[in-house]
Each structure stands twice: as C-alpha cells, then as structure tokens.
C-alpha cells in the first residue's frame, strides 16, 4: 500500500487532478480543511477516500493508476478493519465492558482512509505538515515511512515525536471514544511537522461509528456522582461539524462538551 500510494503521489499533477477534492469536499486528491483564500495552508497533499459503508464511497475518486491501487486498498482496508475490531474489543475490556460493546453499538461503522504526502519543505520552521488536531474517529490506525519522523503528540503540554518503528502501526484514539468513555480515554492531540530534506508519507485509517449512531457517555462509564461531561448527539452531526471546522487542537470537541 505504501509503495502504491507513493507511486500515486509521484504522478504528474494533471493525472492526480483527475480525482479532485471539491472545494469544501472531503474526498479526493487535494487539500482538506481549506476555508479561506488567505489561510496559511498545511504543507501536505492528501488523497482521502471513504471506504465503508458502501454509500460513502465515491468510486470516481479511486485512482486507476497505479493499476493495483484499488485492489490493494480494498485488501488493506479489510485487514485494518479487522484490527480496529480487535482494538475496540480490548479497549472495552480495559473499561470492564463486554468485548463486543463497541461493535454492537457502532452499527455499519464508517471507515475512511487518508494518504498524506508531505514534500520536502525549504522552511520547516515556517509551516506545519498538518496542523494540530485530534481525530474525530473512535480509533485511528496510522502507518508511516520507516526512518522519516514527522508525527508528534502533545503530552503534558509538550510536543513529543513519535519515532517510526519499522513494520509497526501507530494507534491513536479519537474524539468519539473520548465522548463514549466520558473522558476516561482522551483523544490525542497530534500534528505533523515538515522536513527540509526528505518527503514523508502517512497512510491513516479512521474508524468510527455509523453516522446515525447516537454518541454520548456510556451510562456504565459514568460513576455515581460523576458529572456527565459530554452531551448526546448523532455521530453524523459531529462529523459534519468536524469537517467544516479549522484544525485547531481539540477545539472541535467543544461541540460535545457540557461545561
Ligand atoms: O502524517 C501524520 O503522521 C499525521 C496524519 C494525521 O494526523 C491525520 O491524517 O489525521
Ligand atoms: Fe490525525
């Protein structure tokens, strides 16, 4: 998948623009989270694709070159989906819940993939690869080039690099899981920095409940006397809010917070 994604990004621009991300759109090749003419853009080209359920797919945006791209993405996504299931089972267990709790409530879960390609940047001090944000997903599975650092997570107020480990995946928790667990698990704030010499590729799968699933803290996870920290809303509402907001740390989660 990594090789084919790189091959895609190496295609001439005209070729990649056959799969354009529409202004305000979230799928296709281009720049997501662009809301104004004078906004400073992140130093990143993206190919974002809805994978499942079938109705979120936009087959016209799935590249036909390289030829093996679609089949490989299909197989890759099936494996990552199985991994997300397993992760959520284990996460449920850590919370004292039955392993199938999340699978049961997520319905026909939403799975989307984003390939981020960061070209070498002449002034890494001036621009970010991807601005600080948390993912809206429940869990995110991220694959990055061996030897090419760029991802950083915010821990205790400081940015900590996540060094790529060969053949290892990074798992990030997203906002949906923070809401469902009433904040016992926190979504991680992260960003990508640019690099003066090397380009970098990341392949990121977002796994989240179906859009019509109502999110809110699971009653089992709100202890007696503990405040309910997030309100109830449909995941689709949050998703719309998320994709129409600037990437600005964990600000999008204010949508859900009860103050
Ligand atoms: O490139 C990275 O490591 C970060 C990507 C990311 O956070 C995202 O696509 O949501
Ligand atoms: Fe992210």
TrEMBL record:
Key word Metal-binding present: yes
Keywords recorded for this protein, A-Z: Iron, Metal-binding, Oxidoreductase
Alphabetized PROSITE patterns for the sequence: FE2OG_OXY
Cofactor requirements of the protein: Fe cation
Keyword Disulfide bond: no
Residue ranges constituting the Fe2OG dioxygenase domain according to the UniProt record: 101-209
GO MF annotation terms: metal ion binding; oxidoreductase activity
Family to which the UniProt record says this protein belongs: Belongs to the iron/ascorbate-dependent oxidoreductase family.
The protein, known as: Fe2OG dioxygenase domain-containing protein
Organism, scientific name: Aegilops tauschii subsp. strangulata
